[in-house]
Design brief:
Helix 1 crosses helix 4. The longest helix has 29 residues. This protein is of the alpha+beta class. It contains four helices and two strands, in the order βααααβ. It has a two-stranded parallel sheet. The protein has one domain: GMP Synthetase, Chain A, domain 3, CATH 3.30.300. It is elongated, with a radius of gyration of 19 Å.
């Protein structure tokens, strides 16, 4: 889960985003784009064999017995068996004067 609050400083589209419907549409589009980019980055890390979130360390700390079984083949497991479900919750909480 990736959550964030954003301040909108300007809108390049010229669209009036002062209405709740337009703001919700913008938030939905931001969530979709950021979620897609994050999932793509994670999949690329798997293909490169780079555990960028250090999930192996988290397994070792939280589930030491499971880690003992996986540690010698962790990069193979990470690259082929780990599946990411990305959920984003990006909300525009403030709008600057020119938005």
């Amino acid at each position: 889960m990736l959550g964030a609050e954003a301040t909108l400083e300007s809108a390049l589209s010229g669209e009036d985003i002062s209405t709740p419907a337009a703001l919700h549409r913008l938030e939905r589009e931001m969530n979709e784009a950021i979620g897609s980019d994050l999932k793509s980055a994670l999949e690329k890390s798997q293909a490169a064999g780079a555990d960028i979130l250090e999930l192996g360390q988290r397994l070792e700390w939280r589930y030491p017995r499971l880690w003992a079984r996986l540690k010698n083949k962790w990069m193979q497991v990470y690259g082929k068996e780990v599946r990411f479900k990305v959920k984003t919750d990006i909300r525009v909480t403030h709008m600057e004067g020119g938005a």
